[in-house]
Specification:
Layout (H helix, E strand, L loop, with lengths): L1 H34 L5 H6 L3 H22 L1
Helix pairs in contact: 1-3
């Protein structure tokens, strides 16, 4: 019985961390998209602009490191 409660608490913790992390990524994307009014990331990605893709990958990796340590 105690093991089942631990598993439920662990699953709930993972779900909350995932929700916080996903919300952080979406907010960061919207902020950077708003800070660069001349460049719309979605349009650039559709146009196969690799430099924008690399920039966003770096942004998301860095943000993942920060959010990962903050959620712990």
């Amino acid at each position: 019985m105690e093991a089942e409660m631990d598993l439920l608490n662990y699953a709930f913790s993972i779900f909350i961390s995932l929700a916080i992390g996903l919300a952080g990524f979406i907010i960061a994307y919207k902020i950077f998209d708003g800070m660069t009014p001349g460049v719309h990331f979605a349009d650039q990605l559709k146009a196969d602009n690799k430099s924008v893709a690399i920039f966003l990958a770096g942004l998301f990796i860095g943000l993942g490191i920060l959010l990962g340590s903050a959620v712990k």
